Amino acid sequence: MTSPRILPADHPDVAALTAEGWTVAQESWAARAEATDEARRRWEEAAAVVKELGAFRPLTVDDVPAALALDAATAGDYPGGPATAHAPMTAESARPTDVRRAFGLFAADGALTAMTYVDLEGPVAEVDFTVVRADLRGHGLGTALKAASMLALAFPASPDEGPSPAVTVFRTGGAAENAAIRRASERLGFVVDERWLTLAAPTGDPG
């Protein structure tokens, strides 16, 4: 079986492949946000409800078991296809480091209810994923958590609390069918600058 092809929407091969019978199986996107003063105000507004939703803090190595448990419980909840698939975390990938930061929201009983992981490369941060426990979705936890984490990375309360250098550009993305993440990203000021297509081979293609 021929593997899907994942290409930028404006890639010249898209027209050639569709002419051969390939079909668009999924659309996805990537977006960018800069850490400006205006963005800071936007993120502060979005993050203001964090205290009402739970206790926000960076994850540490002690939180790895809880992160793995939440990841396993939500593994099948990511919409989309291979372009936006979420790889189940391992003990290694769940471990926060200087270049892989993680933040969580905790309920009053100490349970981890939402988490986001962000990969850093200098002043650029790529949001790997953000997830909320299934029974708590629809209350803005994901947006608030993402906003609070962006503030922590771009505008730390003290130099010791944030990365060096501080993050100036954030990137995120997702499946076009994932309306929730698209709305959250728009609220946080992300602007789509890449569109991707996942193309499926014609039915009966032997590969």
UniProtKB/TrEMBL annotation:
Q: Would you say which domain of life the source belongs to?
A: Bacteria
Q: What is this protein called?
A: Acetyltransferase
> Which InterPro entries does UniProt cross-reference here?
Acyl_CoA_acyltransferase, GNAT_dom
In this protein, which residues make up the domain named N-acetyltransferase? 54-207
